[in-house]
Fold these 4 entries.
Entry 1:
Amino acid sequence: MKAAYIEKPGLPENIIYGDLPKPEPAEDQVLVKVGAVAVNPVDTYVRSGSIPWDLPKPFIVGCDLAGTVEAVGPGVTRFQPGDRVWGSNQGLLGRQGTFSEYAAVDQCWLYPTPANTSDQEAAAIALVGITAYLGLVRHAQLEAGQTLFVHGGSGGVGSCVVQMAKALGARVITTAGSDKKMEICRRLGADAVINYKVEQVRQAIRKLAPDGVNVWWETLREQDFDLIVENLTLRGRIIVMAGRDARPPFPVGPFYVKDCSMHGFAMFNAPAHEQQRAADAINQWLADGKLRAQIDRVMPLAETAAAHRLQEENTLGGAGSLAGKIVLVP
């Protein structure tokens, strides 16, 4: 089979697109004929070696996938050949990745794909959707009628946060850096969008939420906690899921006198049963038309190295050339 893999961590140019043996499903594994995969920032961290996990050799890159069940191991009870499935959490914690024509995946990390959802959409929603659900429901416990702020509402995680928060009945304020991205945010359901390139974000938030926001979802790698804490309500919650190397100052006094809380998390630490709960909600919202993937572009799997380079230019370099996910197809 064709696959995008590395022999050792390093630059995007380390990614090889070539032939590897087609995997055989183990006892509790499902062999998926891959229809689409999606690129995440964490994929680039694993590939570069900045997350020092022990990796299979060769290591197929990638976390997300969607496709059709080709075969199942003898212990599999949830799926059968012909079923359409999607999943995430591969290529992490030493597991083999997904950027290949076939992938053998433990059944606990796979979920049925709704009939109205394409493989490209399912792959694009996988990791970011589970991340958004865990942050909003498990950690922030967002409630109907509350106000949420999230940076970058047209991005991969941000677009899911906007839509899920609206599905949960919240009011959503977000930011974007262009008229095009602002329009995307509005289509996704944002109640207010701030153009951070021409507006003062601090002043705009105060005007839009004079009493503060209940939940601040921080997507930036370098956080401004003075800005965040001053705009939280009493018992406001901060969600942090980016900024691996960040060491910003923190306003302890204003934080604790408001009874605030901060929740940091990485989705791959969530056990299978919690990710299953997230997937169930995602599937229901997809089926009901309340959630859709924000895809920036679709590329051939053979161009994985270029896709990783583009992702890094945006995640690390702040290029701003992406509005959503990069999806690749075998």
Entry 2:
Amino acid sequence: MGVKLVLLPPQRDLTREWAAGLARGVTGLQVVAPETAAEAAREVVDADAAFGTIPPDLLRRAGKLRWLQAPAAAPPAGYYYPELVAHPVVVTNFREIYNDHIGAHILAFVLAFARGLHHYVPLQLRREWRPLPLDEGVVHLPEATALILGVGGIGSEAARLCAACGMRVIGVDARRAEAPPGVAELHRPEELDRLLPLADFVIMTIPHTPATEGLLNRARLRLMKKTAFLINIGRGMTVRLADLVDALATGVIAGAGLDVFEVEPLPPDHPLWTLPGVLLTPHTAGYGPYLDARRFEILLDNCRRFVAGQPLRNVVDKRNWF
């Protein structure tokens, strides 16, 4: 008997294409793509695997479910609800598909701050020719330190790029045992408070988990250098925005490059829009080509592995959401 995979609704043209591609590409796999919640409730009863978001009522009906492919690298809060965490189903995600795109975005923030663009872009909009004094507004990267919080695929790529610019890179990671190329030192999260005062750039690539929510708060911002810059492209809930606004407004830190926020979209009246030293992008750090092809490649590979009884890629620690 074959293995049954249910692509959970809502269906897009893309997932319908995936269904056909998986059926062609994996011998012994039956692929079903129900269009409605009622159809999904019937199909999930004898499903071995599923793709997408499975609500508690469907999970209770899924008596054979052994594998769930999450539809994102880091699904939103609530995806890993208590019943799913307690269930024996193995969950995998789409991590690693954004490494090159987000690594480039991080480097863009670093170079912008290092060359004073956070100062000059507002002047350009006001048509003001006002150069800073010689040697001010420049960070000499061969003498700078980057502290990267989260040295997974994205953090490792950011480390490689920062090191290529001559920076000393320090990493903090809860899982990684060995430093990847470009990382001079690797530390556990318990060392964060000691490391923050050393950094010229604090780069956050960590996911939103119970342990990381509000990780960078008023107290930790005050541990940073007054000349340091914060860059967050991970998840908005890891930084307390009210504390960050206060730190920027009072000169506790020099600036911030943000792609993610506690509240998205960022309200138009939020002070971050107009604070000096702030560069904002609207959750676009991961934008770039080939993402859907990369998602399908992981799904296809995991389907082949699942049918063959082999270990799956990108297995998630459900209790910690990543």
Entry 3:
Amino acid sequence: MSPNYKDIIERLSGRRLAVIGDSMLDRFLWGRVDRISPEAPVPVVRLESETTKLGGAANVAANICALGAEAVLFGLCGKDEAAVQLKDLLTRRGIDAAGLLETGARPTTIKTRILAHNQQVVRTDREDDSPVDEEIVATLVSRLTKLGPFDGMVLSDYGKGLLTHEALAVFIAAGREAGVPLVVDPKKGDYSQYRGVTSLTPNQKEAEQACAMSITDAASLKAAGAKLLERTDAEAVLVTRGEHGMALFEKGGGEHHLATEATTVYDVTGAGDTVIAVYTTALSAGAGFAEAADLANHAAGLAVRELGTATVTTEQLTAALNEKDQD
């Protein structure tokens, strides 16, 4: 591992980041299938265990804390049992939930995955993705100002109603005023609404949708990167490409292609959360875009080795980098 990477990883623990976005619970029901239902041509899953993990923006915060940095979470939850579970998990992870607002107007978002023999059979979602009102946004911005300053900010957009066009404009303005790295994990829609962020981390499918084009080769990938840079006025865009690795495009013309570091893939759930957490925390610690992307790429390779949402520690990241140096 290069001395520069070692210095960056050591500085991660001193960072403090705000994570703003759609928090949720990821619930996993584990079992096995012995027969097909006589009522319909579907498998009968005999449940054996249940696990619950942080999802969405909450998982981004968990990944930041796993690096030894501090994360303050801003978002919404319901006034229900799921909110109690969410807050309990946040406390266990050492995540500051001072920016999490309770509302009786919508439930806490829950994604429930039923797995048999370590294979996902079906997923159910409980959510209300209607746009939030201006009062909620104003309250969150007030808390963001009160709880600052921060070394970096993440906007985790899962399309669940919090990061509306108007809300994004307010949060982006706050990030720009603070003068810290502001990175967004975008969802489908008009990417001009993210204009002014430092960087963004779409996956390839999201980049294709945003640019209304298919990415089939190096030329189309580069064209998509250029379109996203122009549309958002970002300093850099990091396109995650699954088994094809990542591609980083910088405003000044820099272009970096990173091969996947995943040797074994069990589950890609939450891998994007790991990427934006490591990428933004590294940027807040003074890393360049290429260095931050490389660290995020290694972290993603570790995260997909586990079933369900996973976090990566600095010790694991350091070991992975040292292992690569020995190859």
Entry 4:
Amino acid sequence: MDSGQVVARGAWSNASSFVIRFAARASFLWIAARLYGAVPFGVFSIATAFVELAVPLASLGLKRMIFPWLEEEAPARRPTHVLLDALLLAIIAGCVVATAFLAISVVLPAALVSPGLRFGLMALAPAVLGQVVADIAFAATRWTHRMRYEVIGRGLVEPYVLTAAALGFWAVGRTDVGLLAGYWLASGALALFALWGARHCLGPLDARGWQPDLKALVRRARVLLSPAGSDALTMLAQRIDLFLVGFLLGDAPAGVYGVLRQLRTPILQVRQSFDGILTPLVARTMRADGDVRTGAAAAAATRVILTIQLALVLLMAAAGGPLLGLFGHTYAGALAALVALNLAETITGAFGVSEMILYYRRPARALQVNLAMIAVPVVLTPLLTPRMGVLGAALAMLAAALVAAWLRRHWLKPLGVLNPRLHAAAPVLAALAGAGGGLAVAMVLPGPSPLALIGPALAALAIYGIGIRMWTMARPGALSMADFRVR
């Protein structure tokens, strides 16, 4: 099996789990945005984003670092005892982080947070513990090469408990707390399922025989602070726009923006589908063949991911208006912001592949990319949102993605990684042609009708597909990832 087949098989396996997860979350998104409304959903979106920002700090990077820990100690100790050590550290850190979370919620000025948002932040602060326990327990199941527990937990247990709880609280008229209470119930169910899966994979807990070495745990905690901070910074870069919208514009615009962020999920998941298999292949290729060949292989992966993502951008641009209308009139005018967010995610996802090389060779540079993706929205969002609303925030994220792409290319030059500047121009040109064709069809087709809804999307995708086909015929290896080293 060549490297292209390896990447394709790994990407398809990951993508199937993402499809299950997105399908399960779609019903919740409709309930939260349509039945609850923009204000409660805005509070929920910001509060859960704070939880997601706190989780990497509380978990101390153990979602990844538990693997070498298990490898080192499992021969001499029960794997379940190693897991209990990790959970003990994370729970202590989680209590500290949740307390800090509560304190921040109390002291945030009234000019930035509404009473509803302040209550939401305080209510969800302790939920950090449930998410941390789930993350570490699921990581332990992956150590045994069993992925189904995390797929079922994240894709079915968590979203369906959240959806059922939200629907139930709405039915009894408790739209003030329904989404927050649903998140609590979903986090608890997820943590219990993760622990059950870890016990099934690792064996009995034998809690009576567990004797943690507190001094050794403190030493480990000090080492784990650095990866925890790096993970939290990455998470902040991914959510800074939502925080800024909530603080600058209020809860209702944050609810609209939260829907837009959820609708970009398929594009985000394209890149995530490749990450699991690309990460070890990049490391192996760098070690065997050097940075220059790795750069060429990463460029090919960029073209593949970009080609898939741009098709989804075209589809979202053509069908996004009616899709947003399903959530209510509050969301119907946000199509331009949705397209801008999808383009930002496309640039970050496709051109971010080369960042893996920086992570291995120049980790400080990779950290600076995340800082740039935080700094650009912090500067631009307050300038753009007063006049443009959520579109201003989306454009700020698009600018941040472009700046980050330029920085990656600039910092890869000293490593000898310098692919042609327009190596990925063909998919972009094909997408522009598809967008033009779709717009022309939309102008010709009459009024609101099924044909008027699907015609532009079909035309755009057809023209795009023809353009990609012509490109691959002219350059047969353009989408080949054979340069990656499999063994």
